[in-house]
Amino acid sequence: MSQLPPCPNCASEYTYEDGAMLICPECAHEWSPNEPVAAQPVYRDANGNSLQDGDTVTVIKDLKVKGSSLVVKVGTKVKNIRLTDQGDHDIDCKVDGIGPMKLKTEFVKKA
Question: Full-prediction pTM beyond 0.70?
């Protein structure tokens, strides 16, 4: 049995061949094994679930807002996140009542 590469999108090891394409059953990503694959970072929440742009997440820890006396409370839902690879914060978002901010994936879980 040949060893197939893991999915470049979600790193799943359960890829399978369908004709000339490789397919991931977990995220439905399809790619050709002959094409060079650019390494895309996989963002995971505190529980290990993969995150994508547009997801809704829930904050799992009280987070102080730098330069302010405001606090993002546990359980705050943040909708329509945008994932970035700039700096040490992975998520650009708008938090209701606070405004635009950046969060780390380790402090959120997928809703």
Answer: no
- C-beta of residue 1 within 8 angstroms of C-beta of residue 16: no
Domain with CATH 2.30.30.40 in the chain: 56-110
DSSP classification of residue 4: P
Radius of gyration of the chain (CA): 17
Residue 101's DSSP bridge partners are 93
pLDDT in tens, 30-68: 888 887 656 678 899 999 999 999 999 999 999 999 999
Cα gap 71→82, rounded to integer Å = 21
Question: Domain 1-35 classified CATH 3.40.1190.10?
Answer: no
Look at residue 95 and give its three-state secondary structure. strand
